[in-house]
Task: inverse folding
């Protein structure tokens, strides 16, 4: 019997309801699982491993910033940490660590533990370093504190962590970034950072109102709380409220010693008595920062680290040999009459002068160079390319050269006709004449320049878009990203070795151009070095020294061309950072600039092991 139309409609409607119900049930089940996954508490502990680091087989001289970041008094004596690394009474304690700049230091069960600004935690035990490897990845700690119970508190960009001595797990207490830590009476813990100040008590966290949400320092004096923010010092009961400390509006560092508050304000070290009135501590040179370690007060000054004792202040440690004050990112190097010229990424020009086994570093006066990209010593003159154009070093000062309105300069080269300058809008040739992408170059920004061999050798120009060659003011040939000749079109460094041109790129490693001198107008052939694939070569970081070609990379350290010229291999040496930004051969050593300072590597450097 045939089914009526009404019955068909009822059957179809029922099927539709069943399907809809099944779909809703499936959707509800998936939604519940997603909610449960998101609502589930995050894992509070991760594995912690102490991995011994090998002792360095090769040692180097290293210079960074001279400012002290932290101080500790161990059973063996004074330990200091900062832009210069880690020092104890025997000298450089951090040769085995991966980077130079230290951001925090403390004692954990009497042993120094240090945090590096580039990331990582390292414990000194039995005259060797151990790396604290965690399941949370690399931690960037800004403060370290040992609790009265012997636990280690780690205040990092990634949050607040706690480790028990000998434990194989690391506990995460909070996820907000941390800049400072302090303990208080009754087991209180105060944690400050970019998101304010928190009081932790019995596992419960509460916010403490501060003058500014950015908290750089915190300390307790009995039942009082002291907080340092960009708006100065504030003080009040642990329960609040906090009030500004009169006379400490410009404070940039503070410490509490024997119940008294000390603060650095515009180079002056002030002591605040119980009445709240400030009195100045008379120091031989301006103060930068104040610390308390094992109950002893220290002040970092231009002269060095001072210690306060019963008879007043005395020099605890001279200022280490270091680059001029400020960031120590080295971006360019050159030699002049045995002196080392250092161009700073965040500043101008500095000069290093050897004095026996020591080096002294002085800043060159003048504001004509800032953000130095290249230095050229040729023809009896030193020129500096920076974000403010090109300047010449004359009688110890920098003088701007024409054209003064050409904008940022990135590269320099001495040609048979005079000085060639690479700017953001092209290459200024002697004459002068500007050649740019309009005339056929791969791009306008000239990051690398090198003159070819012979009397009629071309001027090679590296840009972010490829490589070109100039014969006179004419573009003879070029190669760009689309033709596939280079491993990467972003050309940052050029070096001639015999008849061959070596080309460093940012992201594609190194290639070699081979061409006959008889055909300067031909692009020739290009051979990539496969072992360098993916390497980011920084500007100017392809230099010949001692008959070998050295390569500086962004994050992968120093490399060197083999004797037969067939391959590049890494050179295992202690550097301030693996981000190499400048290379310069010296009389008997190789100078290597990095984002964290400078290293002097005496020849011979260790050979690679196959």
Result:
């Amino acid at each position: 019997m045939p089914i009526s139309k009404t019955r068909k409609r009822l059957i179809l409607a029922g099927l539709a309801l069943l399907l809809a119900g099944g779909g809703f049930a499936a959707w509800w089940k998936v939604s519940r699982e997603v909610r449960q996954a998101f609502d589930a508490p995050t894992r509070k502990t991760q594995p912690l491993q102490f991995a011994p680091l090998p002792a360095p087989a090769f040692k180097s001289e290293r210079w960074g910033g001279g400012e002290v970041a932290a101080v500790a008094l161990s059973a063996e004596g004074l330990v200091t940490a900062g832009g210069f690394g880690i020092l104890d009474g025997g000298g450089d304690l951090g040769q085995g660590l991966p980077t130079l700049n230290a951001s925090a230091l403390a004692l954990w069960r009497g042993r120094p533990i240090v945090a590096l600004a580039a990331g990582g935690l390292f414990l000194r035990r039995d005259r060797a370093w151990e790396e604290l490897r965690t399941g949370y990845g690399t931690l960037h700690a800004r403060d370290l504190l040992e609790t009265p119970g012997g636990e280690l508190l780690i205040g990092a960009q990634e949050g607040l962590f706690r480790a028990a001595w000998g434990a194989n797990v690391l506990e995460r207490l909070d996820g907000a970034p941390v800049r400072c830590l302090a303990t208080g009476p009754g087991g209180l813990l105060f944690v400050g950072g970019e998101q304010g100040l928190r009081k932790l008590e019995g596992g419960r966290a509460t916010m403490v109102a501060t003058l500014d949400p950015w908290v750089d320092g915190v300390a307790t004096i009995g039942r009082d709380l002291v907080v340092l923010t960009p708006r100065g010092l504030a003080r009040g009961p642990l329960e609040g409220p906090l009030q500004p400390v009169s006379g400490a509006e410009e404070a940039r560092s503070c410490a509490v010693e024997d119940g008294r508050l000390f603060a650095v304000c515009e180079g002056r070290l002030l002591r605040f008595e119980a009445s709240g009135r400030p009195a100045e501590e008379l120091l031989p040179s301006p103060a930068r920062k104040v610390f308390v370690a094992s109950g002893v007060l220290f002040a970092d000054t231009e002269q060095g680290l001072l210690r306060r004792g019963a008879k007043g202040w005395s020099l605890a440690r001279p200022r280490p040999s270091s680059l001029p004050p400020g960031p120590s990112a080295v971006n360019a190097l050159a030699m002049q009459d045995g002196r080392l010229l250092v161009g700073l990424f965040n500043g101008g020009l500095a000069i290093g002068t050897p004095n026996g086994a020591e080096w002294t570093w002085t800043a060159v006066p003048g504001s004509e160079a800032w953000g130095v990209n290249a230095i050229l010593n040729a023809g009896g003159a030193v020129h500096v390319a920076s974000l403010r154009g090109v300047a010449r070093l004359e009688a110890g000062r920098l003088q701007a050269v024409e054209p003064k309105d050409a904008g940022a300069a990135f590269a320099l080269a001495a040609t048979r006709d005079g000085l060639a300058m690479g700017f953001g809008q092209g290459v200024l040739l002697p004459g002068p004449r500007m050649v740019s992408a309009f005339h056929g170059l791969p791009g306008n920004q000239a990051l690398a320049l090198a003159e070819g061999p012979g009397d009629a050798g071309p001027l090679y120009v590296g840009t972010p878009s490829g490589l070109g060659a100039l014969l006179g003011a004419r573009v003879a040939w070029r190669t760009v990203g689309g033709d596939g000749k280079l491993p990467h079109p972003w050309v940052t460094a050029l070096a001639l070795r015999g008849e061959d041109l070596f080309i460093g790129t940012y992201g594609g490693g190194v290639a070699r151009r081979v061409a006959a001198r008889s055909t300067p107008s031909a692009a020739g052939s290009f051979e990539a070095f496969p072992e360098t694939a993916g390497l980011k070569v920084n500007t100017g970081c392809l230099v010949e020294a001692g008959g070998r070609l050295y390569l500086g990379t962004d994050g992968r350290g120093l490399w060197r061309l083999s004797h037969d010229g067939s391959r590049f291999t890494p050179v295992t040496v202690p550097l301030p950072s693996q981000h190499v930004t400048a290379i310069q051969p010296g009389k008997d050593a190789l100078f290597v600039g990095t984002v964290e300072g400078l290293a002097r590597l005496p020849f011979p450097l260790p050979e690679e092991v196959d």
In short: The domain at 42-54+64-175 is CATH 2.130.10.10 (Methylamine Dehydrogenase; Chain H). The radius of gyration is 30 Å. The chain has one helix and 57 strands.
